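User: Predict the complex with adenosine-5'-diphosphate.
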Amino acid sequence: MMNIVLIGMPTAGKSTVGVILAKVKGYDFVDSDLVIQNQENRLLKDIIAQEGIDSFISIENRTNASLFVNHSIIATGGSVIYGDEAMAHLKDIGTVVYLKLSYETIQERLENAKQRGVVLRENQTLLQLYQERCPLYESYADVIIDAENLGIEELIEKILDQLPS
Ligand SMILES: Nc1ncnc2c1ncn2[C@@H]1O[C@H](COP(=O)(O)OP(=O)(O)O)[C@@H](O)[C@H]1O
Ligand SMILES: O=C(O)C1=C[C@@H](OP(=O)(O)O)[C@@H](O)[C@H](O)C1
Ligand SMILES: [Mg+2]
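Assistant: Here is the predicted structure with adenosine-5'-diphosphate placed in the model:
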């Protein structure tokens, strides 16, 4: 299966860039977050509030591990990298592209991490979350894109340039 899977911190631009990339390449667009909301018939933030973080991660893992699509740009949620089965499956069905940004940029974009429904544990700071996740994103990535200081269109150009043809 030929897909492009976008991973990275929340607000890295996976959903925004993903849908435009799909138009440019003539692919379909799948946002894993919306698939989860659809299947659960609840908002992500309500799933996290009602079930807790571990349960959300396991729902996210299950949903992404059973995503059978082709010629699609898949925008994952930032916490997808905690799901082993999800990541094995996503790597199997596509090229995994990590949109990498500095902590400072993520912090600026994510003014209120909890309100957006980020999987941040009690007493865990955003910096700790960033440091915990970066090595995971890097280890799963087939392609790493430095997205720092790039507008949406510039980022799309860079992704297209760096994708294997
Ligand atoms: N390259 C960019 N430059 C500036 N702002 C961006 C860029 N990409 C996304 N954003 C903004 O960041 C926010 C989060 O983007 P989103 O696509 O939802 O990220 P993700 O899906 O990775 O969490 C949105 O308000 C979006 O407009
Ligand atoms: O990184 C995270 O902890 C999360 C990111 C969200 O998706 P985006 O990365 O699209 O914001 C969503 O999956 C959920 O609220 C948890
Ligand atoms: Mg998103």
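Strands lie at 3-7, 28-31, 72-75, 94-100, 143-146.
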